[in-house]
Amino acid sequence: MRKIRFPHALPQIFVGLKTAVALAVIGAVIGEFVGADAGLGYIVVQSQASANTALAFAAIILLRAMSIVMFYLVVAAERWLVPWAQEQP
Question: Distance between CA atoms of 32 and 26, rounded to whole angstroms?
Fold first, then answer.
């Protein structure tokens, strides 16, 4: 199991992790929209209520940057842990 099945399953596991990273950020923000009193999602909701568009855009840009960084951290881990599954040109 450890020497054959798990290494061959790693590429599919990393596909799931890359999808999960993006959806986790979206889920956290939606959760903050609904019932939080702190966080970037809460800041977006409060800045819309107070008509502070610049603050809302700043929070959205920060969320986007966090999502991109986390995605590429998973990509880097994939390249390090699964070197045999790289794309061929």
Answer: 10
Distance CA 12, CA 16 (A): 6
Has residue 82 got a pLDDT over 80? yes
What are the extents of the domains in the chain? 18-82
Global confidence as pTM: 0.76
Rounded Cα–Cα distance for residues 75 and 14 (Å)? 8
Does residue 87 come out as left (phi exceeding 0), alpha (psi in the -120 to 50 range) or beta? beta
Residue 37 identity:
D
Q: Rounded mean pLDDT of 45-69? A: 86
Annotate 39-73 with three-state secondary structure. CHHHHHHHHHHCCCHHHHHHHHHHHHHHHHHHHHH
**Cα separations in angstroms, 16 against 53, 74, 76:** 34, 10, 15
